[in-house]
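Is this the right way to post structure tokens for a design question? Let me know if I should format differently. Anyway, here goes:
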């Protein structure tokens, strides 16, 4: 499940008259921790914002999913509600979730959120839709893996650990087999057989 972090960024933005004005904008970042969210927002905005900028706040958002459409970059916050039965008591309970979708207006956002959730197995309602101040959303991409901190040097991938364990077990089995077939073991068996013959006499 994705974790979306809301990042507030402050910087000097040039307006239509060519004057610089301090603005504060909100961005949504897909990350696994606050540290990664901060690293990603600095990396994403470093090439788009001219001059210095400051990340003034990072917080976990309550969004569970986002649905971007290519024709517009205006985000709308959609409140989704549906009813499910509790597995233990069997009683019905109301679930509320929040999602984002890009649309030109509220009506289009309503249509698009229904289209995006058409595969849901339960009947849902959309009681509220508002235009969001979020400027841009940065979902996680495979190319962003380099932003993650490297694992400690003493840790190995699980596949390597299992392979090493299997190799050691194979060596142990070979050693046990070689010991059981060794000449010393055969000599002991002959000696024991000789003792048994003497007892019979």
């Amino acid at each position: 499940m994705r974790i979306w972090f809301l990042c507030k960024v402050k910087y000097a933005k040039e307006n239509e008259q060519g004057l610089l004005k301090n603005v504060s904008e909100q961005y949504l970042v897909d990350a696994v921790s606050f540290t990664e969210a901060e690293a990603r927002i600095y990396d994403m905005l470093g090439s788009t914002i001219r001059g210095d900028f400051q990340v003034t706040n990072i917080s976990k958002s309550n969004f569970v999913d986002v649905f971007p459409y290519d024709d517009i970059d205006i985000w709308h916050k959609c409140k989704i509600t549906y009813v499910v039965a509790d597995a233990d008591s069997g009683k019905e309970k109301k679930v509320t979730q929040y999602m984002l979708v890009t649309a030109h207006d509220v009506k289009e956002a309503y249509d698009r959120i229904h289209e995006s959730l058409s595969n849901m197995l339960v009947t849902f309602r959309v009681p509220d839709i508002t235009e969001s101040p979020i400027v841009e959303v940065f979902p996680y991409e495979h190319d962003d893996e380099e932003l993650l901190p490297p694992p400690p040097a003493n840790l190995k991938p699980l596949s390597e650990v299992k392979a090493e364990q299997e190799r050691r077990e194979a060596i142990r089995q070979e050693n046990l087999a070689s010991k059981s077939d060794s000449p010393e073991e055969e000599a002991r068996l002959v000696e024991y057989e000789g003792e048994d013959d003497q007892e019979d006499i």
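Format looks fine. Someone answered above. Worth noting: Residues 88 and 165 are 42 Å apart (CA to CA). The chain has two domains: 4-147, 158-200.
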